[in-house]
Design a protein that fits this description.
Layout: E1 2-13, E2 16-28, E3 33-37, H1 44-51, E4 59-64, E5 67-68, H2 74-84, E6 85-89, H3 100-110, H4 115-128, H5 144-156, E7 162-166, H6 174-191, E8 194-199, H7 202-207, E9 210-215, E10 218-224
Parallel strand pairs: 3-8, 3-9, 6-7, 7-8
Antiparallel strand pairs: 1-2, 1-4, 4-5, 9-10
Amino acid sequence: MISVKDLFKTYVAGDTEVKALRGVSLEIERGEFISIAGPSGSGKTTMLNIIGCIDSADSGDITINGESVMDLKRDAQAAFRRDYLGFVFQSYNLIPVLTAFENVAFSLNLMGVDDAETKERSMAILKEVGLEGMENRRPGKLSGGQQQRVAIARAIVKNPEILLADEPTANLDSNTGKEILELMKELNEKHQSTFIFATHDPMVMDFAGRLVQLHDGEIQSDERR
């Protein structure tokens, strides 16, 4: 489903050059639950951002379902992100003035889904992630774990082909983090979306069906469980 070929990325800050990716190649199959792991500076978030069309590579290619996303123009990349990808971030990135329901519905509004279907799908996914009865609460009235559940609901309600999660447990205690991972695994199995994590959390690595270890921008190991 996803083919990453010979990816290079260098960042320049003043007189400093950071080689974030050094010729990374990887094949990811549909429905995988995969962790890209490594210490800070290993290149895992850079790789996730390039797959998600948030960042661009210096060279190499990424094809998804046979189409090169790096050849897409900016507007086409934005449309691709909107229609095919879901994102979950460690800081939740919810809109604070919107309720849980409105945050989830927002992604469907952007896709032009009509109001009746948006309501039905948003309410159903909020129930699925355990937030039934909390639909009208704003993020400030929700715990960290509940906010992350809203973020997951917002990502999965679109039925994305690929869900990208950058350190999704970083701001959660261990028990809540485990609950979030169990939820994401259930959603992966039910919806058959491909889940790709960037993480340095051992618990996330343990949950993964496949673990790719990066170090200094290169793949050190690739293990299927």
